[in-house]
Automatic annotation (TrEMBL):
This is Transcriptional regulator, IclR family. Keywords: DNA-binding, Transcription, Transcription regulation. Residues 66-247 form the IclR-ED domain. GO terms for molecular function: DNA binding; DNA-binding transcription factor activity. SUPFAM superfamilies: GAF domain-like, Winged helix' DNA-binding domain. Pfam families: HTH_IclR (PF09339), IclR_C (PF01614). The lineage of its organism: Bacteria, Pseudomonadati, Pseudomonadota, Betaproteobacteria, Burkholderiales.
Amino acid sequence: MDKTLLKGLMLLEALADQNGKPVTIPVLAEQVGLTKSNTHRTLQTLAHAGYATRDEATGNYRSTFKLFELGAKQMATVDVRQFAASHMRALVDLTQETVHLSILDGASVVYVDKIESAQPVRAYSVLGGHAPAYCVATGKILLAHQSQEYLTRNLTHLEAHTKATITALPALKAELARAAANGYAMNRGEWRESVGGVAAPIFDAFGAVVAAIGISGPLERLSLKRMKELAPAVQEAASNISRAMGYRK
């Protein structure tokens, strides 16, 4: 493990043990076995990332709620697969297309669950695999619910994978705004030329978007018209999973 990352994790754990109470740099340094200067530099990095905050009057540090939110999101990621399973199967039966359950990881999506279509020709993907979030439907709807700062920080290089890939950030942001307004996002051959998809967001009990459910298949079946026809079914599946996780609009 990277030494800088290890220092940060050690300090986060030490801050969490204080239950939100401010603590001095010397005390933290002693607890984690670092020098005061090392502790100070790492705390500054954690503060910049929003995981710690510094009391201007005393110079002491404490953890923020962002650490709690991170833990809550991780728990939601584990739980969402259990809540989603039956709704994924129902969506496969209804649409006859492959269904994916995805989470966001920086500029990528991770496929945490999937059910294959019974169709002889279908979209190829790997469980646990990654895809550029800005190129696939589940990734686009997840990005549509992130802050502008998140988008600017993570989408620094929009590589073209097909002729349809959106490679200009302003154009992508406009596309994401439309997806947020519509409640679903579409991929029209932006990751793989012959593959399209439509996806909707899943909310947890805190009202945060923690995952996305989507269908994907060859564009010869999933035309733009067909994707729009199936979008309400995808949205209903996402809503059912969200309600099962405790979300109330």
